[in-house]
Amino acid sequence: MMKYLKPATLFDRLIKMNSKIPGIELATGKANLLLGLDIRQNYVGLAVSDYLNLVSYPIMPCKNHMDSVKKYFPGVIARYNIFGFIVGKPTNVRWRHLKDDEVHVKKFISDLQNTGKFKGLKYTYWCDVFASKHIELEYKLNVEDYLKDLPSYKQELLVQKFAAVGTLKAYLNHYRDVEDEYENAKMNLNANK
Q: Which of 29, 51, 60, 104 has the most neighbouring CB atoms within 10 Å?
């Protein structure tokens, strides 16, 4: 069965697992990666981390129908050596969770667990409010000008891709910053001895 972990615990375990892999193997596809999920009514946006956990890249969204997910996700998980999911948790700008959307996201994860196909994978939730600045920047840099002439379903797919990228990138940035602060504090302590 898939296992929920607190956000910090998931990141720590990922780093520990990857620290056991020799450097050259990390760079050649042996690293354990994270998959960002942005779950919407019609599609699930997907983004994958790089082996250093610095960057997130969009990959093709999947239809939000469990039959499609059961077919599509195993290939993605195998191809990218996925360790766990970072699931975007919908919120509004006042930091209140959106009940209907949150129920929809939790139902998706429950249905995913009930398939029995994703045993051993970890997952956590990450607040979409943290991702909003990343999404807005990615959107302005990469999407905005192209959307004007596209049909609405293609616009939705592109926005979906960048929402998943934003969620995963915000998560990675947060824990990289925490890790950097910890290392700096250790160095300062050692320097003061």
A: 51
Domains of the chain with CATH codes: 3-191 (3.30.420.140)
Non-local CB neighbours of 184 within 8 Å, separated by 6+ positions: none
Cα within 13 Å of Cα(148), Cβ side: 4
pLDDT digits (tens, 9 = 90+) for 16-74: 999 999 887 877 888 999 999 988 888 898 999 999 898 899 898 888 889 999 999 99
What is the spatial distance between Cα 140 and Cα 3, in angstroms, rounded to a whole number? 35
Q: Going by C-beta distance under 8 Å and a sequence separation of 6 or more, which residues neighbour residue 42?
A: 63, 64, 156
12 phi and psi angles, rounded to 5 deg: -60, -45
Beta bridge partners of 46: 37, 59
Name the pTM for this structure. 0.81
Rg (CA), the chain: 17
Contact by Cβ (8 Å): 38, 25: no
